[in-house]
Amino acid sequence: MSAAPTDEIYERYLQKAISEINELGDEIGRAGDELRVPVLGSGHPLADVFLLKYEPRPSEIQEGVAFYGRAGQALLKSLQRLRVDPLAVYGTNCLKLAGQDPEEARPWLVRELHIVQPKLLVAMGEPAVAFLNALEFPLSDPLEPNVDGLQRFTGTIEALVIPDIDAALDEAPAKTAFWNAFKAVGPWFAELPPY
Fold it and tell me: What is 6-30+38-190's CATH superfamily?
């Protein structure tokens, strides 16, 4: 029996990731109610780039989707400017429900990271970094919140710590600080080998 072609193997991994991310979404959905609306991650289930912020904003809660609204639009423009394929990106929040206890949310983020298996984790803001460090993700190094450029998160995942996009939308100095940190994603993405 010959080995399956690379694209067939990828398709199998993709179908498995889609199934697992849907199952996780269903579980998060069941944990919510009228007061604690679930906000699910969005994007490619095998994305190279994993965007992470701490908690959902009102527009995300209203739609039930992470990075919905101003932050998502700003990120989309930034990704286009950096020539990063938006289809190679997955975005989510640490907390999946508004006002959620972080202990309740941690296992869900661990599962999300295991499903997506990103190559780059972009942690937005110190609360997201603290949340990640508290995960004690297998074989991970703690992230330093004040380090410029890439850091090792695991043997297969690099990390970039940047300012929180939600806090960077209204003032020019905050936008500049966000952009100056986020633009490192462009050269990193350009160096990825083709599939």
Answer: Uracil-DNA glycosylase-like domain (3.40.470.10)
pTM of the entire predicted model: 0.94
pLDDT tens track for 129-178: 999 999 989 899 999 998 889 999 999 999 999 999 999 999 999 999 99
What is the DSSP track for the chain?
-PPPPHHHHHHHHHHHHHHHHHHHHHHHHHH--SSS-B-B-EE-TT-SEEEEESS--HHHHHHTBTT-SHHHHHHHHHHHHTT--GGGEEEEES-SBTT--HHHHHHHHHHHHHHH--SEEEEESHHHHHHHHHH--TTPPPPPTT--SEEESSSS-EEEEE--GGGGSS-HHHHHHHHHHHTTHHHHHHTSPP-
| Predicted confidence (pLDDT) per residue in 28-43, tens digit | 999 998 888 999 999 9
